[in-house]
Amino acid sequence: MLAFVRARLDEEEQVARAAGGERWRCPPEAPGEVHDRSGGISFSVRTQGYDRHIALQDPARTLRRIETSRVLLGEYAEVAHLDVDRPEHDFPSGRAVGLGFVVRQMAAEHAGHGDYQARWLPRFAR
Predict the structure, then answer these.
(1) Is pLDDT at 102 greater than 80 in this prediction?
(2) What are the CB-based long-range contacts (under 8 Å, 24+) for 69-77?
(3) pTM for the whole structure
């Protein structure tokens, strides 16, 4: 599961870097336009607020999110062996199950990918 999520992050990083890794913005004086850092118009979408949503998906923000996701994966990698269906009642096991839930959610974002495995579905325990 870790390798799967890391591979999806690597793919997303390549896309963001290919897009320039620069910050996009929506200038208030030009509604519907998304500009790159130099002020050039990256694209224009003038309907239903898509411009603001798209601007929030800028490559720089994507790269920051990928980095924080990799930190979570690193934390989980340390305790993944403790992420079992019936964990012990101690801090390391609780940490493993909690981080495992997060990583399973991250994997589930890509449930349509051919390499996704149903056994990675998030566990819901009482």
Answers:
(1) yes
(2) 69/5, 69/9, 69/106, 70/6, 70/9, 72/99, 72/102, 72/103, 72/106, 73/2, 73/5, 73/6, 73/9, 73/103, 73/106, 75/99, 76/2, 76/100, 76/102, 76/103, 77/2
(3) 0.81
